[in-house]
């Protein structure tokens, strides 16, 4: 949409230097007639160079990225920058403030709300501003996710859209290697996600999935922080002692096939996983049992894996309903076919 955004920024994104403030999203409610929602943002700019958006809090119950982006705001000064670094620690501020995946104001899932709507709900307005004001300035976007409160990933992972041609494949492969988390998954585009928003704005995006289960672990936090700083050094926006000499690990390139890499519950009950994170499974292997304690004589329902791969993610919560995701798989074949 071409209508102007109602969001007003306290930060001038064209200004040199380091500037920290709020994106003000007007929000008139009973307790605050002329109020606004304070979405924290920082811009660190010096000279000519790449522009990179690093954001977290796309989903409010994913905490690792919020810690990492807040740390960057404290530690990076303008003399370390060539180009511009835009930092957004709580992208969907209402969701992040509440510790929820979606916004308590409109039930909006920010990562299913792009390209957004400047005249829409708060989440749609935020999505529109991120795509059309922030990403539109950028060559690179890093969106820091985790499993949140309902899912747990096997360590620190990355995702990127399947490249459209050989040239883009080489760029994406190099960017993932520079971040250097243990596993990277390619997936098909979904037009309502931030990755597709970045593609529409001619930027390359990297998304992380860092652990989860509503907690933060020191090892994953260190690994992700090291990888992100190394990536910022690789693209040329960050220089100096903060840039690690190497990425945290060698990246295993994999892909996700929506038709055979997801396992879902088909009935409400209690979820008993039958495999561990990281397990190598084949199509037809037993994935889980769904128990029915309200009807204890009933035999548990068996759930099977629909395809081959490694278990990269599993549900945390034992209570399930029909349609809940229980497991996600990843496969090595073929990572950069275009």
Architecture overview:
- The two termini are 31 Å apart.
- This protein has 2 domains: 8-255, Aminopeptidase (3-Layer(aba) Sandwich); 262-330, RNA polymerase II/Efflux pump adaptor protein, barrel-sandwich hybrid domain (OB fold (Dihydrolipoamide Acetyltransferase, E2P)).
- It has helices spanning 64-75, 93-98, 122-134, 166-179, 194-200, 218-235; strands at residues 8-9, 17-26, 36-46, 51-56, 83-88, 140-145, 151-161, 183-187, 204-212, 252-255, 262-264, 269-273, 280-281, 286-291, 301-304, 309-315, 319-320, 325-330.
- The protein has 338 residues and is α+β, with helices and mostly antiparallel strands.
- Helix content is 21%, strand content 31%.
- The strands form 2 sheets. Strands 1, 2, 3, 4, 5, 6, 7, 8, 9, 10, 11, 13, 16 and 18 form a 14-stranded mixed sheet that branches.
- The mean pLDDT is 96.
Number of domains: 2
Termini separation (Å)? 31 Å
What is the number of beta strands?
A: 18
- The share of residues in helices is 10-25%
The CATH homologous superfamily of the largest domain is named: Zn peptidases
Give the mean pLDDT.
96
Structural class: alpha+beta
Stretches where pLDDT is under 50 for at least 5 consecutive residues are none
Q: Rg, please?
A: 20 Å
Q: Which CATH architecture of the largest domain would you pick?
A: 3-Layer(aba) Sandwich
Please tally the helical runs, counting DSSP H or I stretches of 4 or more residues: 6
Described by strand count, sense and barrel closure, the largest sheet is: 14 strands, mixed
Q: Outline, from the CA principal axes?
A: globular
Output the CATH topology of the largest domain: Aminopeptidase
Q: H/E order of the elements? A: EEEEHEHHEEHEHEHEEEEEEEEE
Assigned CATH class of the largest domain:
Alpha Beta
Strand content: 25-35%
Oligomeric organization of the protein chains = single chain
């Amino acid at each position: 949409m071409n209508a102007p955004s109602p969001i007003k920024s306290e930060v001038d994104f064209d200004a040199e230097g380091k500037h920290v403030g709020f994106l003000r999203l007007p929000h008139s409610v009973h307790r605050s007639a002329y109020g606004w929602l304070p979405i924290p943002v920082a811009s660190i700019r010096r000279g000519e160079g790449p522009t990179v958006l690093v954001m977290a809090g796309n989903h409010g119950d994913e905490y690792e990225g919020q810690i990492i982006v807040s740390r960057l705001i404290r530690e990076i000064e303008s003399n370390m920058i060539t180009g511009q670094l835009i930092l957004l620690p709580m992208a969907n501020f209402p969701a992040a403030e509440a510790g929820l995946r979606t916004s308590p104001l409109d039930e909006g899932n920010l990562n299913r709300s792009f390209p957004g709507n400047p005249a829409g709900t708060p989440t749609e307005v935020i999505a529109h501003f991120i795509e059309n004001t922030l990403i539109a300035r950028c060559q690179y976007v890093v969106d820091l996710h985790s499993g949140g409160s309902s899912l747990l990933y096997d360590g620190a992972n990355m995702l990127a859209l399947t490249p459209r041609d050989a040239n883009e494949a080489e760029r994406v492969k190099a960017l993932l290697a520079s971040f250097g988390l243990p596993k990277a998954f390619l997936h098909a585009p979904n037009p309502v996600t931030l990755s597709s928003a970045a593609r529409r704005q001619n930027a390359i995006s990297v998304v992380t999935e860092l652990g989860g289960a509503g907690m933060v672990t020191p090892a994953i936090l260190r690994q992700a922080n090291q990888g992100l700083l190394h990536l910022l050094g690789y693209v040329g926006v960050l220089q100096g002692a903060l840039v690690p000499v190497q990425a945290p690990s060698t990246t295993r390139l994999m892909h996700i096939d929506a038709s055979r890499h997801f396992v879902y519950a088909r009935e409400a009950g209690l979820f008993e996983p039958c495999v561990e994170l990281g397990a190598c499974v084949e199509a037809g292997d037993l994935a889980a049992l769904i128990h029915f304690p309200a009807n204890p004589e009933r035999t548990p329902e068996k759930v099977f894996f629909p395809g081959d791969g490694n278990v990269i993610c599993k549900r945390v919560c034992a209570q399930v309903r029909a349609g809940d995701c229980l497991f996600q798989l990843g496969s090595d074949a073929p990572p950069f076919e275009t």
